[in-house]
Input
Amino acid sequence: MSKKSDGLSLGYRIRWRLTWLLLHIAGPASLSDELDPRRRMERERAAKVARANGMG
Output
């Protein structure tokens, strides 16, 4: 059973969470999913986890 954080280093996860929170607080107002930087980060992270788990 894989988790959302499998294959990600602790440093990456901390940096990712801090960046995500900063974008949530001080980022742009509501944007479409294609333009939202937080959604882009989430898609990139999901792809990275999939590659680490041999699914991508």
Summary: The mean pLDDT is 86. Residues 10-52 form one domain.
